[in-house]
Task: inverse folding
């Protein structure tokens, strides 16, 4: 432990020395912005639809989610109750009972299937908590505020639609994550898209193509862990911390980043078991606390809730936000922020779910479909309602506190002061809850830290896939990861979120290759599990 902490300090020393120079945060942002712009331009290449340039990756993401929803006969509706029961442990005995030989599929032998539950490291609930901690984060607080600031209330509707469809995609990719996982000699589980892409495509005679796609995914996943799972989180934590403490001095973001890097560095050393033990306690607590605060605000403004929903529906198809670009424009804003928030289609959550103790891969797929529901349908909607009601200014007569569309980059003026991301949500909370700036700061920091430790696991698994499972390789990744904590805290929101979006969405391309080749396997595994429940 002392050696690892010393490594963290050695990493920080040269940067701390550089931090003494005037304008550090600005220098880091100026250095990082060209990198961010490059990746954003490459990943979000567009095709023209109805006069609007639509990013192809969004069409792929949403179109695939719709296909899986229809193909699996709306699992997001008809298997929702089953998913709840799996998390509750109602069917845990299936992982220990003898197996009906008729349920043995895909080459499994009945006598060995019953022992497969020994492979895995965490329970269904722990896997869900770890994955939710990677999805429920500042995308729900800052991301929703950014969506509304850019696209207006209508963006909320499209966020919910994307979240609902994303439940099916999450089901498919997490079932495959368990189905094709690797288990080391010491019982450590290695899983995720890089494994089901390489192993699954090999089964179908595309071994070389599968290896190439798996490597591409692993590279993008490492980038995603540095961006959306790390830098974007530390960025928004820094925003609220600086606002709470009045730290607008040069270099403040850097120092906050250093402190966060040290805290995260200590936590991520323990691996998935320690992450699971932390997140299964912290995630439900912080999510419940945040939801209670939202419910309190909504309860205090109960008469305005129907007006808020009415405005959301109206603006979804007839947007008035400045510069949003009509219905397709607001739809894109909503889909983009929802996909970033719940990561359905990116494949990241399947890395955490693959570590579950089960012999039925579809059981964990069903658990996983709850993530977009919790993340987007519930938490994002509540955040949106709070912000929209706040912007009513006390009634729904038409007067607003800030103008939807803002400056076109996500910032809005409130009482002559520019706010962006989590700052907008913080301002809305402060209107109704005394000292809410302290509460929301704690919530944002907890969301950020839990997301970072979960994503460090995702990125590390991809790193291991590329560079092996040695301790030296692990430490190299962790040091790079902690460096991006500092970069995220220092650079501007525009640069960090553009890079983060690009890295998260880049994962969609190779992941979808695997999903389209292997979704028939998911159908077999779902049938096997449902028959086991009935029997």
Result:
């Amino acid at each position: 432990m002392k050696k690892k902490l010393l490594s963290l300090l050695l990493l920080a020393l040269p940067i701390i020395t550089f931090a003494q120079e005037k304008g550090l945060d600005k220098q880091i942002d100026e250095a990082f912005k060209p990198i961010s712009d490059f990746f954003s331009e490459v990943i979000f290449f567009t095709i023209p639809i109805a006069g609007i340039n639509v990013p192809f990756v969004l069409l792929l993401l949403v179109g695939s989610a719709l296909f899986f929803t229809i193909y699996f006969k709306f699992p997001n509706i008809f298997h929702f109750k089953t998913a709840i029961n799996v998390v509750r442990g109602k069917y845990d005995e299936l992982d220990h009972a003898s197996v009906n030989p008729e349920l043995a599929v895909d080459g499994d032998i009945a006598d060995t299937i019953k022992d497969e539950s020994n492979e895995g490291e965490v329970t269904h609930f722990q896997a869900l908590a770890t994955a939710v901690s990677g999805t429920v984060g500042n995308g729900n607080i800052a991301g929703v505020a950014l969506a509304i600031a850019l696209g207006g209330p209508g963006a909320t509707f499209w966020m919910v639609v994307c979240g609902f469809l994303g439940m099916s995609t999450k089901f498919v990719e997490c079932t495959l994550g368990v189905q094709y996982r690797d288990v080391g000699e010491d019982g450590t589980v290695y899983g995720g898209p890089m494994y089901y892409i390489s192993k699954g495509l090999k089964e179908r005679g595309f071994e070389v193509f599968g290896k190439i796609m798996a490597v591409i995914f692993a590279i993008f996943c490492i980038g995603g862990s540095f961006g959306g799972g790390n830098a974007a989180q530390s960025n928004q934590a820094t925003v609220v911390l600086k606002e709470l403490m009045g730290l607008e001095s040069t270099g403040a973001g850097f120092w906050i980043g250093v402190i966060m890097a040290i805290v995260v560095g200590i936590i991520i050393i323990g691996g998935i078991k320690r992450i699971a033990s932390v997140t299964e306690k912290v995630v439900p607590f912080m999510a419940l606390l945040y939801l209670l605060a939202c419910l309190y605000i909504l309860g205090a403004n109960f008469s305005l809730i129907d007006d808020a929903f009415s405005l959301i529906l109206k603006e979804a198809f007839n947007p008035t936000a400045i510069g949003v670009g009509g219905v397709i424009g607001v739809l894109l804003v909503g889909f983009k922020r929802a996909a970033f928030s719940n990561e359905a289609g990116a494949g990241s959550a399947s890395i955490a779910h693959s570590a579950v103790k089960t012999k039925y891969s579809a059981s964990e797929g069903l658990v996983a479909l709850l993530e977009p529901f919790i993340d987007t349908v519930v938490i994002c909607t509540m955040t949106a309602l709070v912000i929209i009601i706040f912007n009513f200014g006390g009634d729904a007569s038409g007067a607003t506190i800030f103008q939807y569309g803002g400056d076109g980059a996500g910032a809005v003026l409130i009482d002559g002061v520019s706010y962006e991301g989590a700052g907008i949500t913080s301002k809305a909370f402060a209107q109704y809850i005394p000292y809410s700036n302290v509460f929301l700061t704690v919530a944002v920091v907890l969301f950020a830290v839990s997301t970072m430790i979960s994503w460090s696991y995702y990125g590390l698994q991809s790193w291991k896939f590329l560079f092996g499972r040695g301790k030296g390789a692990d430490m190299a990744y962790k040091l790079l990861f902690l460096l991006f904590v500092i970069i995220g805290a220092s650079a501007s929101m525009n640069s960090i979120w553009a890079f983060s979006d690009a890295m998260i969405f880049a994962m969609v391309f190779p992941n979808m290759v695997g999903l389209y080749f292997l979704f028939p396997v998911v159908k077999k595994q779902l049938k096997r599990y449902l028959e086991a429940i009935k029997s």
Q: What stands out?
A: The longest strand covers residues 46-49. The radius of gyration is 22 Å.
